[in-house]
Write a structure and sequence with these properties.
The chain has 15 helices and 13 strands. By secondary structure, the chain is α/β, with parallel strands linked by helices. The chain has two domains: about 120 residues, Aspartate Aminotransferase, domain 1 (Alpha-Beta Complex), CATH 3.90.1150.10; about 260 residues, Aspartate Aminotransferase, domain 2, CATH 3.40.640. The strands form three sheets. Strands 2-8-7-6-5-3-4 form a seven-stranded mixed β-sheet, sandwiched between helices. Strands 9-10-13-12 form a four-stranded antiparallel β-sheet, covered by helices on one side. A two-stranded parallel ribbon has the order 1-11. Strand 5, helix 9 and strand 6 form a beta-alpha-beta unit.
Length: about 425
């Protein structure tokens, strides 16, 4: 989409005045004087999440064990709300576990290597936790990662070549796991095209939605992947370390869960406490332990808010405000060696902007000193995420002005290049 921007404060104020989502900002706890640009790592706390958590506390206080009468299927209830974000069936989406445990759960269920077909295809740019899990799974099957994990190399260290991924789908590949949105460069992969190519070759394929869910609309009824996993603490603002999500296509409901646990047992026999596992014939059969209600409750609040708005409106604002940020980088910061390291096309970029500079780490420290919260990714990327639900255009403008001052005066040189514990 073509946007008409100018590099003055007046337009930023006008954009905020005409922003249909401007009032949603009031739902979040914005800290005075702070410009928060790290919602792609940890979304801000919302009043909706807080109220949902306090409600769950009240239920626990007043009902005790009787609370299970209403919340026994809470993971599926939240899953149904999350299913709206990806256009999946309610019984295919579950809120459970962590991103990594859900990778293990899905892969251990669907990865059945044979002599001829035993490899798992991955890329070399995905977030490391997925690779750690994949390497563990092939070891459990008696292989080494060197022989059973097939890696598609990025041609430039920024983007995944979709043609190379499809070309790598050889007869020895049993399963594929890829990111929908790259955490570093914000590249969106064409899930429909790649999934179709995998299925044409009888290959199981799953997607990591961690940097996609809540940021971009998805249509799993159309794409029909085999599985997907995601966290809920980024764009879904469900809280630090909040419970993750799992999608399993209904065609796999008859398969034995690779990691069985009592909460995945059939409802009608669960409390018979048999020693023979009988899994529920929907995605709830992939639950392992008792759901952690206090950790799940905030997600209900944020999902209710997001679904009341709709992903199309959220995506529209996200595309516009990230385009505005890229425009200001070009206009004000390029002269100081800054470049945009993410795709510029609307259909190819996620919800954050990658500002690249040789001294990116030091600049990120200088920003924090000025009460701007970004995050940094090696080797030179400052990720900036103006979140549609709570970031204003004026904040984007002010942040770029602060960056311009840091770069112009080289105040970043005051900061060490030594990496901290959390970057």
């Amino acid at each position: 989409m073509k946007y008409q921007f100018t590099n003055d404060l007046k337009q930023a104020q006008e954009l905020d005045q005409n922003d249909p989502l401007a009032s949603i900002r009031d739902h979040f706890y914005i800290q005075p004087g702070q410009i928060y640009m790290d919602g792609n790592s940890l979304g801000l706390a919302s009043k909706d999440a807080e109220q949902a958590l306090l409600k769950m506390m009240d239920v626990w206080k007043t009902q005790g064990i009787n609370m299970w009468d209403d919340y026994f299927h809470y993971g599926m209830q939240l899953g149904a709300k999350c299913a709206q974000l990806i256009n999946a069936k309610d019984n295919e989406v579950l809120i459970t576990g962590s991103t990594t445990s859900n990778v293990h759960s899905a892969v251990s269920t669907l990865y059945h290597p044979t002599k001829e077909r035993y490899k798992i295809l991955v890329d070399d740019l995905n977030f490391p936790t997925d690779r750690y899990a994949i390497d563990s799974e092939v070891r459990l099957k008696g292989y080494t990662p060197q022989e059973a994990v097939k890696v598609v190399k990025s041609p430039d260290g920024k983007y995944i070549d979709e043609d190379a991924v499809i070309e790598a789908m050889t007869d020895d590949v049993a399963l594929i796991l890829l990111p929908t949105v790259l955490y570093r460069s914000a590249q969106i992969l064409d899930m429909e095209r790649i999934t179709k190519a995998a299925h044409e070759r009888d290959i199981i394929i799953g997607w990591d939605l961690c940097h996609a869910i809540g940021a971009i609309p998805m249509d799993f009824e159309k794409v029909q992947p085999d599985f997907a996993i995601w966290c809920t603490y980024k764009y879904l603002s469900a809280g630090p370390g909040s419970i993750a999500g799992l999608y399993l296509n209904q065609k796999h409901f008859d398969k034995q869960p690779g990691l069985a646990g009592w909460w995945g047992n059939r409802d009608d026999t669960q409390f018979q406490l048999k020693h023979q596992f009988e899994h529920q014939q929907d995605v709830s059969g992939w639950q392992i332990g008792t759901p952690t209600m206090l950790a799940m409750a905030p997600l209900e609040g944020t999902l209710n808010l997001i679904n009341s708005i709709g992903m199309d409106k959220i995506r529209t604002k996200s595309l516009k405000i990230t385009a505005y940020l890229m425009y200001l980088i070009d206009e004000k910061l390029a002269q100081y060696g800054c470049t945009v390291g993410n795709p510029r096309e609307d259909d190819k970029r996620g919800g954050h902007v990658c500002l690249e500079h040789p001294h990116g780490y030091q600049i990120s420290l200088a920003l924090k000193e000025r009460n701007v919260i970004p995050d940094f990714r090696e080797p030179d990327v400052i990720r900036l995420a103006p979140i549609a639900l709570y970031t204003s255009y004026q904040e984007v403008y002010q942040m770029v002005e602060i960056l311009e001052d840091i770069l112009k005066n080289k105040t970043y040189e005051q900061y060490s290049e030594k990496r901290g514990l959390v970057v």
